[in-house]
C-alpha cells in the first residue's frame, strides 16, 4: 500500500511538517518505565505556574446583555480540556490503515522509547501559548497524567507563562486519568504522515468517571473573563460536564468562546448535535473555518452559515467568525447587525497548523476588552499569519516580534486591500494603514496590562508543593517546576 495521505489522518490533530526541536535532550523514557501504576487513587493539586493578579481584570464585556455582571477577574481566559502531547516518529514505510487505527498499534507506539526532541505540545496548548504571548493571563483546566508526558507538558506551559493549571478530577481514580493524552504523528517518505491516538477509536469519553467538576475548577472558571472550549472536549468529557463548566463560568459574566475544530464532522451524530445546540445557546463567540461551518450548519456559504448561528432563537451568540485561511476572515455581529470582511496578511506560508488557534487568541482578547472590530481583525489576521510563517505549532506559534513586524509592514502601506464593512445601512471600507497602527497600540496596551498585574503581586505568588501520586515517584506536578524562570517570547 502506498503512503497515507491526509484523507486517512486522524481529524483531531491538523497535519504538520516536522522539524526537530532545538534545545537540550533529556534521557529517552518510555511510558512503561515512566508510569508506575497504583492500586489507590492519587491526590491532585492546583498548580500555580505564574503569579496572576486578582486586582486587575479585563475590561467590559462586548455583549451588552451581560455587561453589568462583569467584574475584575484573575485570568483573562481559561481553556477547558483538550491538552495533549504530539510525538513524532519517523518510519521507512507507512503501515496500512487497518493496522494503524487499532488499539494494538497504539500500544506498540507507546512502548517505544522516544526522544524528547520529537515531542511538542498540541491541541489547546496552541491557543494558550498564543494568548500568553499576546499579554493575556491564562489558565488551563484539563487532565494531565502522572507520567513523563504530563510533566513535559506542564513544564512547557510554565515556561510559556501560563499562570495556572487546575486538574479536571481531584483524584486519578482510573488508568485513563493516569495517562496524558498522546497523539503519535508518523512521518514517512515523501512527507507522508498519519496519526494514531485514543481519539481515533475511543471508547468515549476518553476521561471516564469525570461526571462532575470539582469545587476548585468552578473557582477558576468563575475567576476568568473568558472560557475557550474546543470541539475535542466532547471526545473527552460528557456534554453535561461541559455545560456544567459553561454555566459556572457565565454565572459571573464570563464570555464563552467555542471552536468546533477538526472534529466538526462528529457533530452530525444526533446525540452530539443535541449537545452542540445546547452549547451554542450559551456561547458568546463562535469561530469556525468554512469547512467546519458547513459541517455544523449544513450551509456551504460562509455568510449564510454565520447568520444562521447568530439568528438561532434564544441563543446568546453575539459574534460568529468564519476563518477563510489566506483570504482572511468574515466576522458577523448580532447587535448591531453587521458583517466585517478582511483579507489575510500576505506571507510566505510554511505551515498552517495552529493558525486558527492563534487567531482565536487575538479575538478572545479583543472581544472581552471591547476593542474596535476592524483593528481587532487586523491584529488577529497578523497573529494567524505570523504562525503560518513557521513550521508546526505548540511553541512555534506566533511570536510577538513576528506579529509586530507584520503590523508595522501593514502600517507602512504594504497592503492595498481595504477592510470591508457591511451593515443594514450600507457598505463601506476602511484603509488598512491606520487599522494596523491601532492594532499595534492594542498589543502594547495588552502587554502593559500584564506587566502591571505581574508586578502588583510579585511578592505574593503561591508555591507548588507535594506530589499527586503520594508514592514517591516523579510527578508532573512537582514543586521545582515552579522555580524555573519563565522563557519570555514577548
Can you describe what's shown?
The structure is a single chain. The chain has 490 residues and is α/β, with parallel strands linked by helices. Among the domains are: 73-208, UDP-N-acetylmuramoyl-L-alanine:D-glutamate ligase; 254-456, 3-Layer(aba) Sandwich (UDP-N-acetylmuramoyl-L-alanine:D-glutamate ligase). The chain is built from 16 helices and 16 strands. It has helices spanning 31-34, 97-100, 103-111, 125-133, 148-159, 215-222, 233-236, 239-250, 270-281, 290-297, 302-310, 355-368, 373-388, 400-411, 432-456, 480-483, and strands spanning 47-48, 77-80, 83-90, 119-123, 138-142, 164-167, 182-187, 193-197, 226-230, 255-259, 285-289, 319-323, 329-333, 338-342, 419-423, 426-430. The strands form two sheets. A twelve-stranded mixed beta sheet has the order 1-6-5-2-9-10-11-12-13-14-15-16, sandwiched between helices. Strands 4-3-7-8 form a four-stranded mixed beta sheet. Helix 9 links the parallel strand 10 and strand 11. The longest helix has 25 residues, at 432-456. It is globular. The chain starts with 30 loop residues before the first helix and ends in a 7-residue tail after the last helix. 51% of the residues are buried.
Amino acid at each position: 500500500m502506498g503512503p497515507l495521505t491526509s484523507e486517512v489522518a486522524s481529524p483531531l490533530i491538523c497535519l504538520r511538517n516536522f522539524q526537530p526541536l532545538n534545545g537540550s535532550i533529556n534521557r529517552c523514557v518510555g511510558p512503561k518505565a515512566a508510569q508506575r501504576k497504583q492500586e489507590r487513587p492519587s491526590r491532585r493539586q492546583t498548580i500555580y505556574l505564574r503569579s496572576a493578579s486578582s486586582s486587575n481584570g479585563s475590561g467590559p464585556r462586548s455583549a451588552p446583555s451581560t455587561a453589568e455582571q462583569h467584574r475584575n477577574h484573575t485570568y483573562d481566559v481559561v481553556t477547558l480540556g483538550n491538552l495533549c502531547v504530539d510525538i513524532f516518529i519517523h518510519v521507512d514505510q507507512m503501515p496500512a490503515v487497518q493496522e494503524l487505527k487499532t488499539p494494538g498499534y497504539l500500544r506498540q507506539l507507546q512502548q517505544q522509547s522516544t526522544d524528547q526532541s520529537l515531542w511538542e505540545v498540541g491541541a489547546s496548548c496552541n491557543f494558550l501559548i498564543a494568548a500568553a504571548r499576546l499579554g493575556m493571563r491564562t489558565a488551563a483546566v484539563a487532565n494531565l497524567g502522572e507520567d513523563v508526558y504530563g510533566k513535559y507538558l506542564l513544564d512547557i506551559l510554565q515556561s510559556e507563562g501560563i499562570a495556572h493549571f487546575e486538574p479536571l478530577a481531584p483524584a486519578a481514580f482510573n488508568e485513563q486519568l493516569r495517562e496524558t493524552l498522546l497523539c503519535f504523528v508518523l512521518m514517512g517518505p515523501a512527507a507522508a504522515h498519519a496519526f494514531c491516538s485514543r481519539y481515533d477509536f475511543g471508547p468515549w469519553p476518553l476521561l471516564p468517571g469525570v461526571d462532575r467538576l470539582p469545587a476548585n475548577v468552578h473557582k477558576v472558571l468563575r475567576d476568568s473573563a473568558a472560557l475557550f472550549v474546543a470541539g475535542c472536549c466532547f471526545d473527552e468529557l460528557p456534554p453535561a460536564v461541559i455545560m456544567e463548566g459553561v454555566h459556572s463560568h457565565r454565572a459571573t459574566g464570563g464570555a464563552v468562546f467555542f471552536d468546533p475544530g477538526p472534529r466538526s464532522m462528529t457533530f452530525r451524530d444526533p446525540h452530539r448535535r443535541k449537545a452542540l445546540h445546547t452549547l451554542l445557546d450559551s456561547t458568546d463567540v463562535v469561530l469556525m473555518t468554512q469547512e467546519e461551518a458547513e459541517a455544523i450548519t449544513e450551509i456551504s456559504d460562509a455568510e449564510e452559515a454565520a447568520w444562521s448561528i447568530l439568528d438561532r432563537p434564544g441563543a446568546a451568540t453575539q459574534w460568529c467568525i468564519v476563518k477563510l485561511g489566506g483570504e482572511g476572515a468574515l466576522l458577523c455581529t448580532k447587535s448591531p447587525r453587521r458583517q466585517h470582511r478582511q483579507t489575510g496578511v500576505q506571507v510566505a506560508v510554511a505551515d498552517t497548523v495552529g493558525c486558527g488557534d492563534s487567531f482565536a487568541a487575538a479575538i478572545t482578547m479583543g472581544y472581552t476588552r471591547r476593542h474596535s472590530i476592524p483593528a481587532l481583525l487586523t491584529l488577529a489576521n497578523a497573529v494567524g499569519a505570523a504562525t503560518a510563517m513557521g513550521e508546526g505549532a505548540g511553541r512555534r506559534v506566533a511570536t510577538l516580534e513576528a506579529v509586530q513586524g507584520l503590523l508595522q509592514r501593514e502600517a507602512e502601506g504594504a497592503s492595498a486591500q481595504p477592510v470591508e464593512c457591511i451593515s443594514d445601512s450600507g457598505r463601506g471600507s476602511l484603509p488598512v494603514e491606520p487599522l494596523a497602527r491601532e492594532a499595534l497600540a492594542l498589543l502594547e496596551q495588552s502587554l502593559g496590562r500584564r506587566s502591571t498585574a505581574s508586578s502588583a503581586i510579585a511578592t505574593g505568588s503561591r508555591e507548588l508543593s507535594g506530589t499527586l501520586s503520594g508514592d514517591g515517584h516523579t510527578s508532573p506536578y512537582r514543586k521545582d517546576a515552579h522555580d524555573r524562570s519563565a522563557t519570555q517570547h514577548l
